[in-house]
Amino acid sequence: MNPLEIDTASVKTKQDAGEEFLFLDCREQDEYDRVHIEGTTLLPMSEIQERVGELEDQQQKEIIVHCHHGGRSLQVTIWLKQQGFANVRSLAGGIDEWAEKIEPGMERY
Hints:
- This protein is α/β, with parallel strands linked by helices.
- 36% of the residues lie in helices and 15% in strands.
- It has helices spanning 8-16, 29-34, 48-51, 71-82, 94-101, and strands at residues 5-6, 22-25, 41-42, 63-66, 88-91.
């Protein structure tokens, strides 16, 4: 696995342990409205450059980014690292893999 990525089981373990991290959903609003992981914050990839200031207080904290399958979130992860965010990773497989392995009842699209 790419060191820029984290697998779904590891993220679920972090959640269950009560670890603090920002779980960022970089999909678009309509995708988020259709289905989302509880506790995530929506910041669409299409808006992140204009809205990156909203993440300023998270610069030194852990951020996990997810999208549908992991492609957009990987791009966002790389971009955030270039902006000085030290601890950012992309959820490998995205919400689709999350629905398959972590929340089997979740809608898939």
